[in-house]
UniProtKB/TrEMBL annotation:
Stretches assigned to the Helicase ATP-binding domain: 30-187
Keyword check for Hydrolase: yes
Naturally occurring in which organism (per UniProt): Mesonia aestuariivivens
Keywords: ATP-binding, Helicase, Hydrolase, Nucleotide-binding
Name recorded for this polypeptide: DEAD/DEAH box helicase
Any GO MF annotation of the entry: helicase activity
Cross-referenced InterPro entries: DEAD/DEAH_box_helicase_dom, Helicase_ATP-bd
Amino acid sequence: MPFKKLHPEIKEKLAKLEIETPTPLQRKSIPVIKSGMNLYCTAPKGAGKTTTLILTTLQKLKCEAVGDAPRAIILVENKEKALEILDQFLVYTRHTSLRPYVAHEKMHIDLQKSEILEGIDILISTPKNLNKLFLLNGVHTSQLKIFSIDDADFLIQQTAYAALLSITQSVIKCQYVIYAEEMTAKLARYDSYFMEYSKKISLS
């Protein structure tokens, strides 16, 4: 059972939330993500993709703050989704030292840069905004462990697709996990860029 092998603080939080049994998606995907492999994770709405993203991010970061540079990046479609994900993260990080942070187009880029440089662990952002931060050297990726994309179906938009390719060219090495409702030809193209040797898990 994947939950049995998670960090003690995660298991404690799951117990408080009365979440005892992993979903079929979590049972399949959590061990693969823990192994460090790049992964495409496709499943319908309600299968537990976002919760899987949160649990595996906390596991990778061992539920504690370290250094100043982000060790996890979460890419989302828009500001609303970013704030929604932040709220879900806060349920799990409230009694840890982890520092999640949201950055989006409506915030002044210089403010984002200065706040990120003060020290964060988890950066949640949109492709366009994150690419802008990268181009302005506003994010250091030397400590990056995991880069996840939530509900990646939005990457069908050419601007988001191109921004992600630009971002990943600046990352020397980390694990990538893409969550989507279905595997598309456009997502499969990432195999040629940053998703090499990736595994695919799908629930229909």
